[in-house]
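Annotated sample (chain length 171).
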Amino acid sequence: MSCEMNNKKRRRRPLFTARLFFCSTWVPTVGFSIHSQFLFLSLYILDHKYGITSDPWTHFACAFSALIHDVDHSGVSNAQLVKEDDPLCATYSDRSIAEQNPLDLSWDLLMAPKYNDLRASLFKTDADCKHFRQLVVNSVIATDIFDKDIKALRNGRWEKAFKNCLLYTSP
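Output written by the structure step:
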C-alpha cells in the first residue's frame, strides 16, 4: 500500500466513504456512526493489545470491514430474514445473508469505474487486490455469530492462534 496520492486520488476516499454511508439503511438500533466507532475502537484494542493487525493489509482490511459490514442492513437477524423468505435468501442460499449482502454491495462500489484511481493507489497488483478481498470477506463473514459452521471455523482459528498464550482461554 502506498501513502503517496495526488489530490485527485485523495478526494476519492471521502466520496467512497460517503457513498457507503448512503448505501446504509438507517436502522435506529444499528446507528452507522456509533456502531462504526465501536468497531474501530475494537480494532484499536486488537491492534494494541494483541498486535494481530500489525500487517498493513490486515489492518486496512479490518478497518474497511468495520466500515462496510452493515451496509444495507435491514435491522433483523439472518434467521428472521430466512423466516420471512426475504429475496436475499435465495441469492445467498440462506447463509450469512446480512454479511454477504454488504460485501457484494461494497465490493461492487469499490470496483466501479469512478474509483479506478482509488484502486490504483491501493492495489499495485491483482494479487494485492485479491489478498485484500480475502481478508475483507473473512473479516465480515466472521461477524455471523449464529452460523454453526462459521463459529466452528472461527473457534478453530482462535485456538490455533492463541493456544500458546499465557492468558489463553478457550472460546
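Annotation: The CA atoms of residues 4 and 119 lie 13 Å apart.
Annotation: The mean pLDDT is 77.
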